[in-house]
# Entry
Amino acid sequence: MTPPAAPSTASSAPLRILITGSAGFVGSHLVERFLGEGHTVIGVDNYISGQPQNTALFLGHPHFRFLEADVVQGIPYGGEPLDWVMHFASPASPPHYQQYPIETLMVGAQGTQNGLELAHRHGARFFLASTSEVYGDPLVHPQPETYWGNVNPNGVRSCYDEGKRYAEAITMAYHRTLGVDTRIIRIFNTYGPRMRLDDGRVITNFVDQALRGEPLTIYGNGSQTRSFQYIDDLVEGISRLMAVAYHEPVNLGNPDEYTMLNLVEVMEGVLGRTLELRYEPLPGDDPKKRKPDITVAGTLLRWKPQVQLEVGLTRTLERL
Amino acid sequence: MTPPAAPSTASSAPLRILITGSAGFVGSHLVERFLGEGHTVIGVDNYISGQPQNTALFLGHPHFRFLEADVVQGIPYGGEPLDWVMHFASPASPPHYQQYPIETLMVGAQGTQNGLELAHRHGARFFLASTSEVYGDPLVHPQPETYWGNVNPNGVRSCYDEGKRYAEAITMAYHRTLGVDTRIIRIFNTYGPRMRLDDGRVITNFVDQALRGEPLTIYGNGSQTRSFQYIDDLVEGISRLMAVAYHEPVNLGNPDEYTMLNLVEVMEGVLGRTLELRYEPLPGDDPKKRKPDITVAGTLLRWKPQVQLEVGLTRTLERL
# Structure
């Protein structure tokens, strides 16, 4: 791993950190990182999209404690004062949030607010996991944080997009009105070990199909592009932002773009074999193209993605 | 009043209608209309921006009942089955919602959801008062309902804009997921009797200044435009939409544009005297220009605004 070139949780005194969504893909990597740095972690999840095996990984750790709870109903923590409340709970992939639209909206509104209230009561800092989906179907490329987005407020994806936009708005309202010390990140497409193979995204689809020996599905002619951030880069950016007093949203993502056919070539290199392809028509709701402008993270956190796609895919396949 | 040219609540059997925000400007006009048509109305308000005198108007009416409650905490209605739950509760003018940003967000999220839950339990229909503010600072003029808007998700106005966008999203989620029979309107700038003179908008500012004998404040050179809908036109559109099964948002507003100096001339005509003006620099956050595309309401409801500005201003001044 790249040693931090800027202040981060790696160099801080031991912290007590509550993470909602601790059994999710990103949440579980935060738990791992913070425990490894000597911090105490309280994980909270209701397993609506998180996975019990991601809790089991840490249950034996002396500084880890787990609360099974739906943060929409409240966060049943009554222990010693917290330093951070980090709100990462939410269904985050289209198949999951479209299965649970009302729950997804609620974890953006009541869930975020319960986290903010807990942070406020403890004098703790609050960290919101927002998303590149707040940009919707962007008309500006790449997207800087100042871009306001192009989001359908009542379409089938709005449960996630509008839930997260609301989460940002209420986070800023608690910051401005009650002085809660807040952070907001907008996470772009991220992959790595422990991602769910049923999340419907292209890397997980390809990995799943390659491991099953099935042909990889290419929609359209495969020339559409995506960018992919390895989970460790995201976690490093989060850790650095925790050490900086900055309250506006910060993009964390990898701006390198790959066509679907480029991605197949990289996977073939990693797996050491040729992969068969199956072409299908582009679906009507093909996911939008988004690419982060990471100038703010670069300037503020001296952060940029370090893990090349070949390396990240290799690590992902090793630890699936 | 123009007789309805299309089905509306005027021709329906007696209904039992619960209205949140019944003591607000728009809410109180709905109460008046529905009681006048023979329906039963249950009003709910917590007076955060509504006014007790708007409840007092109807307290003696045999078909009116009032519940003082914060709909964010729940709607304490336990009576006979409702036909409609109409969610009009929210601070709605910039000075009010910026004074109560967290409450404004909550009435958009928990308040809307409590209304949806009540409607779902009663098998009632649900009517959401949304707003032209969901278009933010629009890049398209006029704004059709299909325009997705240009809204800052975390600026100082986001408590209202994002609260209402969330309200639309959760209304559609209840419609799609649970089959609740819903309606959504987007209300553009509306004026009339019982508007609060401290709401910070230009008509109320001008009326207030004219009645006090003070000069009217013109920001900039007075050439910027606004459009103004008289309350009775809005209420007629609401009543007609209740008679039609249409679930997508519908704009209700008056597309006629007036410059600030045109508005002064109309007021001078209504008041029969010349008004003194005082010019001040344009503020940095001058309210955005918005103008409704009302094609959908015209086609669907055979609705268009009937009340000219001169007439509406005369009625407003008579009944202040």
